[in-house]
Amino acid sequence: MRSGCWFLLPSLTLAYPYFHDGSAIQPDTRSLSEIYHAALKEGGLVTLWHGGDEKNQQDGLKLAFEKRFPGMTLNVTVDLSKYLDVDIDEQLARKSLYVDVAMLQTLQDYPRWKEAGALSPYKPIDFNTVFDQIVDLEGYYMGVRFFHWPMTWDSSRVKGSGPTGYNDFLGKDYKNKLVLTYPNDDDAVLHNFNKIVQEHGTSWLDRLLQQNPRWVRGTQTPTDIIVNTNSNQTATFAAFGPFGSSSLKARVPIKDHFTSWAQTGAIFTEAPHPQAARLLMNFVISREWQQDLVENGLWSVRKDLSQPSGYNQSLLDMQNTDPLGFRDFMMDREMVERLRFWYEERLGVAKGLDPIFDNM
Ligand SMILES: *[C@@H]1O[C@H](CO)[C@@H](O)[C@H](O)[C@H]1NC(C)=O
Ligand SMILES: *[C@@H]1O[C@H](CO)[C@@H](O)[C@H](O)[C@H]1NC(C)=O
Ligand SMILES: *[C@@H]1O[C@H](CO)[C@@H](O)[C@H](O)[C@H]1NC(C)=O
Fold first, then answer.
1. Does ligand 1 have an atom closer than 6 angstroms to the CB of 91?
2. Looking at the CA of 84, which ligand is closest?
3. Could you tell me if 186 and 81 are in contact, meaning their C-beta atoms sit under 8 angstroms apart?
4. Fold match between 22-147+261-315 and 150-258+333-357?
5. How high is the mean pLDDT of the chain?
6. I want to staple 75 with a disulfide (CB 3.0 to 4.6 A). Which of 37, 47, 208, 226 is the partner?
């Protein structure tokens, strides 16, 4: 038992110590239909907390899940992973957990929760189709979808064929035209900036600042601003879609490093709806849902699907991204904190509305 985990409520400890008997569980041997009926019988509800920075970001998942499994309700809450995890810690400490499943960017939480006994091991039917490197082989947690930060621009307002690497953003065409998420407000953005500065030096950052970028909170906010053609900003990087507008283009850098990671999911030991939680874990790694992600330009966590259009390698095979390196970065909280303040000194404290409430 690690008392240091529950700094919020130090007098409370966790109910379930972690026992490790070395025996790996097997993937669920039930059919999907059997799991579905068990979930219906349990009440037909599952509560998911998903990392993100706009409330509606998981509406697509909710819609697809509820359509695939009539009678089921996916009660999904999206908020910044760094806020969801501390809320979960508090619920755990108070022994009043009502979240069934967490799918977060804060990859450092999962080994800690596993060790504390807070996670329930489970391998969905298709567990073995998911890349081994992004799962806990004992089944306590697993990568459920890949995210990555592309470079994004409005092709109706950017001349030429768009950026191919981060040095392009230093050119005169991008003066006063960039909108960027504060790296000191999101660890995945911080990771991307850190990689760029490692490759191009701090002079790259100095020159970027001379471009007078607009700094915002939330990783969808830049794209929302670019899509609005009345805005002055036309391009971003280390930020994300949706890529709904036809003139909005996105691609990863040709040579420069870009950040990617496996958003990781787990079921809690105290999940009030364990069967529905299992059904959800089966669905998120299912061929149909992952294929849907691929068609929307994302990489699949399954080994048996093709790459998104325009790419011929999995994220784990590409030279200029490293989802496992991102996990290691997130585990090193001392380094992350030092970096965050290095940026904060240069950019100032992140200002603006909490992206969840910015109505974009
Ligand atoms: C749905 O999720 C919200 C936020 O996590 C929670 O407050 C609410 O109780 C949940 N609803 C049900 C019916 O469990
Ligand atoms: C866009 O740029 C123009 C010219 O620099 C400036 O006058 C205007 O205020 C800017 N608009 C916004 C919304 O910032
Ligand atoms: C994958 O695509 C890249 C860039 O388009 C190309 O250079 C490379 O040869 C391709 N590799 C394979 C194995 O097809």
1. no
2. 1
3. no
4. yes
5. 91
6. 47
pLDDT, tens digit (0-9, with 9 covering 90-100), for 173-220: 999 999 999 999 999 999 999 999 999 999 999 999 999 999 999 999
Residue with CA nearest ligand 1 atom 9: 98
**Cα 101 to ligand 1 centre (Å):** 12
CB of 102 closer than 6 angstroms to any ligand 1 atom: no
The architecture of the domain spanning 150-258+333-357 is 3-Layer(aba) Sandwich (3.40)
Candidates 1.10.730.10, 3.10.350.10, 3.40.50.1970, 3.40.190.10; correct CATH number of 22-147+261-315? 3.40.190.10
Domains in the chain: boundaries: 22-147+261-315, 150-258+333-357
Among all bound ligands, the one having the nearest atom to the CA of 318 is 3
Alpha-carbon torsion angle 156, 163, 234, 295, nearest 10: 70
Q: Give the type of residue at 164.
A: T
- 223 three-state secondary structure: helix
Residue 178's SS3 state is strand
| Mutation pick for ligand 1 pocket among 85, 98, 103 (CB with most ligand atoms within 8 Å) | 98
According to DSSP, the residues that pair with 104 across neighbouring strands are 264
- The two three-digit tokens of residue 239, written as one number: 């930020």
Which amino acid is located at 350 in the chain?
A: A
Counting ligands in written order, which one lies closest to the CA of residue 272? 1
- Residues 324-338 pLDDT 10s: 999 999 999 999 999
